[in-house]
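Work Package 4 report. The design task specified in the project plan requires that, given a folded chain encoded as structure tokens, an amino acid be chosen for each position. We show below one input record used in the internal validation round.
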């Protein structure tokens, strides 16, 4: 931050940081705070600045020299300092004090050195008294005028203000002191704060310049997703593409601007992000208007004393790939509620976040498409990013986590065989396979995964439960469920991981608190019960399968760059955690997921027939309490050397399944990637 350079020389300043007051005050009979008798120049300055630091402006006035208390009223003195603190948004003040040096002041009238008398009627809140001024020099006349130069001390100081509006403001000043009956006392005029105020004082104002253009939002390939055009209108050139993720920005009303923190310095009519990255990256995109602190003396011209230059809005580059985003959105378009997340399994970069119904941000800024077609106001559902903000049961696409827990604690191996019967009973409750299908005899866990056998994986979860009650829920937590992904920039929900702790805090439908038990375990094993997860969580978890054990933090914003090319932000891929599974265990799990798309009875085989690239994934058909289940299919490819992860959910699809409804849409996205 640039401040207008002071006029007082401070060459050879030796700084000593003032950490706090070391000199206690004394109280006069009149109640004014004064310094102890015999106080030395540096200690007097230290006490004066300490009172300033803690905002004791009235007491500051008490410790300046009597002649200055006579000239400048307590109210005016305190108001000037308070106004300065207010307009800059003062948050902290640090001072450093140099070594005193001898100097002299001109002759002056010397009133009695005691508490200031009551002030006369003022012409303004900050005025010199009518009788102030210098008298002709003499030795000491009957009016108390000192003859000849007055011995004084000059102490250099550095004042470092931290402010919300101007940032760090540093002022180098010189404090003059003369001797009084109580020792050395500070001499003060308004010019000490800023010379532009002169001897008569004044006040401060803030002048705000025009806000520079808001930065653009760009896709990974440079495609412009948001920009500001003529008359300051925010425009979204790609219309609905990544609408919920990009979000929108509209002008603030008077009331909205007033409600914003003063430090943010918003003004009515200024664009502000309301949704998505427009809101999440607001501090980067909006830039900063230029500000000047103006000193307005009672006599003289208004002059700037501190200036903060404008900072243009930054261009924010996302990791989104428009071709994948476009394909994902087109695939979801026929569905009233759906979501797809696409990520890079080796970095956590988000390549697409698609949500249906679609949202065109131009509806909020122009009211029309770019072609001029009127747009209706969006519904609440259109504004919701179902890929990050909506959590659903996952159905059988959760079975790989049950297998992972069993492998992790050693209750299952590649040699394990179990039945896949039409039904399975637990405590009098009968669970079914889809359409009561079965596989004859005892089957491997790979075969049971391909066929999506509830009656295999539910009993397997009970084997896990009997060995370690928390093993399954702990592993699911390790894969990132039941907690935010850390995406930042856009809203997200943590979903629900109904573990033992969760059930201690959430009553059942009966209203009673019932501990986590076997029924909860088997429901969780197939992604049902109280479990809820987002498609972003699912994509990241399957990415950890794909890369054989690394859970990434999702990365949505890659860089932010100023108009001059200055790099303001560069994000890097960040590992969230490593999953505690051996390479052999991970390979066996991936084998099971690949069987889903290759075995003759695999639930995803038909969807990926003839695709030409090995795909590993798992269908999910999550019950909703009616005939319209959620259909899910998270997957990655190639299964042996993964490059892309796609997770798709179609909400409440009539008689739908993950394999028949969601898997073909995943294939479409993957085809765009592998066969552009």
């Amino acid at each position: 931050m640039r401040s207008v350079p002071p006029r007082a020389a401070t060459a050879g300043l030796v700084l000593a940081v003032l950490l706090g007051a070391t000199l206690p005050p004394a109280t006069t009979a009149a109640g004014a705070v004064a310094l102890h008798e015999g106080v030395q120049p540096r200690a007097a300055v230290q006490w004066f600045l300490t009172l300033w630091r803690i905002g004791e402006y009235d007491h500051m006035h008490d410790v300046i020299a009597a002649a200055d208390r006579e000239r400048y009223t307590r109210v005016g003195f305190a108001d000037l300092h308070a106004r300065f603190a207010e307009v800059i948004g003062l948050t902290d003040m640090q001072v450093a004090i140099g070594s005193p040096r001898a100097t002299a002041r001109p002759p002056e009238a010397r009133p009695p050195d005691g508490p200031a008398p009551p002030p006369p009627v003022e012409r303004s809140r900050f005025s010199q008294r009518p009788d102030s001024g210098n008298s002709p020099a003499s030795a000491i006349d009957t009016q108390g005028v000192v003859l000849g130069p007055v011995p004084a001390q000059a102490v250099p100081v550095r004042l470092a203000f931290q402010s919300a509006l101007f940032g760090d403001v540093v002022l180098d000043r010189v404090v003059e002191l003369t001797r009084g009956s109580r020792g050395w006392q500070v001499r003060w005029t308004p010019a000490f704060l800023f010379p532009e105020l002169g001897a008569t004082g004044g006040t401060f104002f803030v002048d705000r310049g025009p806000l520079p253009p808001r930065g653009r939002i760009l896709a990974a390939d440079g495609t412009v997703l948001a920009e500001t055009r003529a008359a300051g209108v925010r425009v979204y050139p790609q219309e609905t593409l990544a609408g919920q993720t990009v979000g929108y920005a509209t002008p603030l009303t008077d009331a909205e601007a007033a409600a914003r923190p003063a430090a943010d310095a918003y003004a009515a009519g200024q664009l502000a992000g309301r949704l998505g990255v427009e809101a999440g990256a607001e501090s980067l995109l909006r830039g900063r208007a230029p500000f000047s602190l103006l000193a307005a003396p009672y006599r003289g011209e208004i002059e700037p004393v501190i200036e903060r230059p404008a900072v243009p809005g930054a261009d924010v580059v996302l990791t989104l790939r428009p071709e994948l985003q476009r394909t994902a959105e087109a695939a979801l378009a026929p569905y009233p509620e759906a979501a797809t997340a696409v990520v890079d399994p080796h970095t956590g970069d988000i390549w697409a976040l698609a949500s249906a119904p679609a949202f065109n941000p131009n509806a909020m800024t122009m009211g029309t498409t770019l072609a001029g077609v009127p747009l209706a106001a969006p519904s609440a559902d259109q504004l919701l990013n179902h890929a990050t903000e909506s959590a659903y049961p996952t159905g059988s696409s959760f079975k790989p986590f049950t297998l992972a827990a069993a492998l992790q604690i050693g209750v299952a191996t590649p040699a394990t065989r179990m039945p896949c019967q039409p039904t399975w009973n637990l405590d009098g409750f009968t669970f079914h396979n889809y359409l009561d299908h079965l596989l004859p005899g005892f089957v491997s866990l790979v075969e049971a995964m391909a066929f999506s056998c509830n009656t295999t994986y539910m009993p397997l979860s009970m084997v896990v439960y009997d060995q370690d009650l928390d093993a399954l829920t702990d592993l699911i937590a390790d894969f990132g469920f039941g907690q935010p992904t850390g995406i930042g920039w856009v809203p997200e929900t943590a979903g629900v991981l109904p573990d033992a702790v969760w059930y201690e805090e959430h009553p059942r439908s009966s209203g009673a608190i019932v501990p986590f038990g076997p029924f909860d375990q088997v429901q969780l094993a197939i992604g049902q019960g109280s479990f809820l997860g987002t498609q972003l969580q699912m994509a990241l978890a399957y990415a950890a399968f794909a890369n054989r054990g690394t859970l990434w933090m999702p990365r949505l914003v890659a860089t932010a760059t100023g108009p001059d090319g200055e790099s303001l932000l560069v994000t890097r891929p960040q590992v969230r955690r490593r999953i505690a599974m051996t390479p052999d265990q991970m390979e066996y799990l991936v084998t099971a997921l690949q069987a889903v798309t290759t075995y003759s009875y695999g639930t995803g085989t038909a969807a990926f027939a003839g695709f030409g690239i090995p795909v590993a994934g798992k269908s999910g058909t999550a019950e909703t309490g009616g005939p319209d289940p959620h259909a899910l299919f998270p997957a990655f490819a190639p299964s042996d050397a993964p490059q892309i992860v796609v997770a798709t959910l179609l909400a409440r699809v009539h008689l739908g399944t993950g394999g028949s409804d969601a898997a073909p849409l995943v294939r479409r996205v993957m085809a765009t990637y592998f066969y552009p």
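The two ends are 50 Å apart (CA to CA). Validation will be extended to a larger panel in the next phase.
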